[in-house]
Amino acid sequence: MNGTDHSANGIDALLPPEVALKAEAVGVAKTRMDTLSLLALAVLGGAFIALGGMFATTVLAGADGVVPFGISRLLSGLVFCLGLVLVVVGGAELFTGNTLMVMAWAAGKVRLAEMLRAWLIVYVGNFVGAIGTAALVLLSGQYLSGRGSVATVALNLALNKVSLSFDHAFFLGILCNVLVCLAVWLAFGARTTSDKVLAVLFPVSAFVVAGFEHSVANMYLIPLGLFIKAWGPTELWTQMGMTSAAYAALTWPAFFASLVPVTIGNIVGGGGLVGAIYWFIYLRKRQPG
């Protein structure tokens, strides 16, 4: 390599310093967006991630004892990527990816209050979109597929997530959003739709395979388990060979409590270990203005 900027031709991917400038500009633009537009895009973002979660839980159904653990997790991770692909390509706002706004804040382009306002609006919108999709999945009866195997996966995932200790959930949240924000970072550098899809594929698959914790995905997966526990038909429990008492620890207070460490971890992972580090490398020495 001779150091020439090959991205200037509009065909090659952006180079990392250019991606940093783009991430900064995107962060500024998001904070300037009007509340209703930002909220609507955030609702879409939550719904898109939920659709990826629906895809993943269905693929996992019936895999225990049939498909090796790693292979079943890999398949679920690959299909879960649908969520971030829809966000990046289709256009939506996602709280976890928006932690990269730290770059615009560190560069002095936005105020802390502006960044926190955008985060709050997007977080609320993601919650509405994710839990709304969970309600639609319940009403549709999709979770009844596979003679109770889809519902079993959904319930077990939800129970496992609310059973995590605070520190485990926190660190799993950090690791998750490092990968999610790296996926977004790579997508910023992409020139075509196929580039963006491929950029998202492996980082997102990795966090699913590893069992890391994503706050917005949990806004779908845990409520779905709670809905099934509360309103699943009697015959479902018969098919599953158990009762709702097996999921006594799966409660709404446990859900909200579990969101706290995962959300904080997501902020640290995406904002601190990706956004702040790339700001330090590429943007900190730039002259003001």
List the helices and strands and how they pair.
Elements (H helix, E strand, L loop, with lengths): L15 H17 L2 H26 L8 H12 L1 H10 L3 H4 L3 H5 L5 H29 L8 H14 L3 H23 L4 H18 L4 H17 L2 H7 L11 H31 L7
Describe this structure in words.
With 289 residues, the protein is an all-alpha fold. It contains 13 helices and no strands. The mean pLDDT is 94.
Give structural attributes.
single chain; 74% helix; globular; 289 residues; mainly alpha; Glycerol uptake facilitator protein
Short description:
With about 290 residues, the chain is mainly alpha-helical.
Instruction: Tell me which CATH architecture applies here.
Output: Up-down Bundle
C-alpha-based Rg, rounded: 20 Å
Quaternary assembly: single chain
- Tell me, rounded to a whole number, the average pLDDT: 94
Which residue ranges are poorly predicted, with pLDDT under 50 across at least 5 consecutive positions?
Answer: none
Category by helix and strand content: mainly alpha
Number of alpha- plus pi-helical segments? 13
Major beta-sheet overview: none
Number of strands: 0
